[in-house]
Specification:
Elements (H helix, E strand, L loop, with lengths): L1 H4 L25 E2 L2 E2 L6 E5 L1 H9 L4 H9 L3 E6 H10 L4 H7 L5 E3 L8 H11 L3 E4 L3 H8 L6 E5 L2 E5 L1 E2 L5 E2 L1
Parallel strand pairs: 3-4, 3-6, 4-5, 6-7
Antiparallel strand pairs: 1-2, 7-8, 9-10
Helix pairs in contact: 2-5
Pfam families: Fcf1
Subcellular location: Nucleus, Nucleolus
Family: Belongs to the UTP23/FCF1 family. FCF1 subfamily.
Amino acid sequence: NAKDRAKARVKKKEDPSAIKEREVPQHPSCLFFQYNTQLGPPYHILVDTNFINFSIKAKLDLVQSMMDCLYAKCIPCITDCVMAEIEKLGQRYRVALRIAKDPRFERLPCMHKGTYADDCLVQRVTQHKCYIVATVDKELKRRIRKIPGVPIMYISRHRYNIERMPDDYGAPRF
């Protein structure tokens, strides 16, 4: 019978005095009391597709508005995935494509397969904590907030704002 073959396994009782092992995530060495020491002027800002589109709608100059927000020199960075996403949008977004091809933008090559820009940005920010992520996408913001020490730049009320950008003292500025 199948019932006879499958005997109930006896569970071992846990010893309350035994040392319990648990896995604690290792934080990168650049984070010191939640303050990211790799962030400093000139700021490298990873730009998302919708951030460029919303900047055009709000009639904001991308580089100048970033400098006005951070009071420092900013280098906007754009990945190959974001460029591919803008090119896929077609003729309606030709102004965004022209802005993305600006020589002031630093071009970052991607070594992975696929062209999904959100995964690319999250992966790059997880590996290198030296970037500020500029996005308006709620889902991408939610994913980046889970990564400690990564500030987010967004647009509200026709101006750029920064979220979780630490001051010189290490306290978060909102």
